[in-house]
Amino acid sequence: MNTFNVVSVNRSEKKGTIKTPVPEISIDEQGVAGDAHAGKWHRQVSLLGLESIHRFEKQANRRIKYGEFAENITTQGIELYQLHPLDRISIGPTELEISQIGKKCHGETCAIFKEVGNCVMPKEGIFCRVIKGGTVKAGDKAIYQPKIFKIKIITLSDRAYHGEYDDLSGKHIGERVTSFFTDSHRECIIDYMVIPDDAGKLHSLLLEAKSWIHRFCVYHRRNGHRTTRHYARNSKTFTG
Q1: Which of 46, 38, 148 is nearest to 96 (CA)?
Q2: Which is deepest, 5, 80, 194, 238, by most CB within 10 Å?
Q3: Average pLDDT by consecutive 10-residue portion of the chain (240 residues)?
Q4: Are 11 and 34 in contact, with CB atoms under 8 Å apart?
Q5: Residue 124 in contact with residue 80, Cβ under 8 Å?
Q6: Beta bridge partners of 22
Q7: Fold of the 148-239 domain
Q8: Domains of the chain: which residue ranges?
Q9: pTM higher than 0.90 for the full model?
Q10: Out of 3.40.190.10, 2.40.33.20, 3.40.1160.10, 3.20.20.80, which CATH number does the structure's domain 2-145 have?
């Protein structure tokens, strides 16, 4: 289990301004209550690691206060910018899903940039949407939960299903998918199966995959030496 600490919680009433540390923040379905960045969008809560702040302090040759880069939650114990979108962070009952790493810097039009002279948030700050609300305060423990992608690979082939030959194409797809996620430093679980060339069976499996919240499903039909691949994502299907 990857745990780290909340060292400060911060809030501001206007965007583009430094946030002020507060004893606690209340997070609801729109973000931090009373904060300028709350709303129905993907950057409801911002986090910045003390590790990033310390690196910037050396460059700026001065101490940086909590909230000075307009982060809602200041943390310690993990390099936040090395996390990935769709990973989750739990702080007590509060659950956040990472939606973005870094952001565009507005430079001299930003009050933070004018006051601090630079900003670390565009490169090392992370942004989240709220999955479940709650109260967060300094001293709380946070738990990092990496996203594990569930992949279903289905081969449609009467001959492979009856064991007349080994389905090499389905296994090759699995190897390539695994390699992609490994290179991206992400985790995946692959559910591989061979079924007869039966549209009804395939339909049932795709509905089952959808109910399991499989993010990505690959099914392909063997037709002689030709393989047609179909990709189903979020119940939409396309052919490649």
Answers
A1: 46
A2: 80
A3: 94 89 97 95 96 88 89 97 96 97 71 66 92 97 95 91 91 93 92 91 85 54 47 40
A4: yes
A5: yes
A6: 9
A7: Rossmann fold (3.40.50)
A8: 2-145, 148-239
A9: no
A10: 2.40.33.20
Both tokens of 229, joined, read 């691949």
Token pair 């004893």: residue: 23
Interior angle at CA 169, CA 163 and CA 173, nearest 5: 130
Token pair of 132, please?
């479940």
Is there a contact between 130 and 49 (Cβ–Cβ < 8 Å)?
A: no
pLDDT at 135: 97
- Supply φ then ψ for residue 96, to 5 degrees: -120, 145
Q: Rounded to an integer, what is the distance from CA 140 to the centroid of its chain? A: 21
The DSSP code for 183 is: H
Residue ranges of alpha helices (H) inside the chain are 50-60, 111-116, 121-124, 158-161, 168-183, 199-211
User: Three-state SS string across 129-177, please?
Assistant: EEEECEEEECCCEEEEECCEEEEEEEEECHHHHCCCCCCHHHHHHHHHH
Contacts of 136 (CB under 8 A, 6+ apart): 6, 9, 24, 25, 27, 73, 91, 92, 94
Q: What pLDDT sits at residue 117?
A: 62
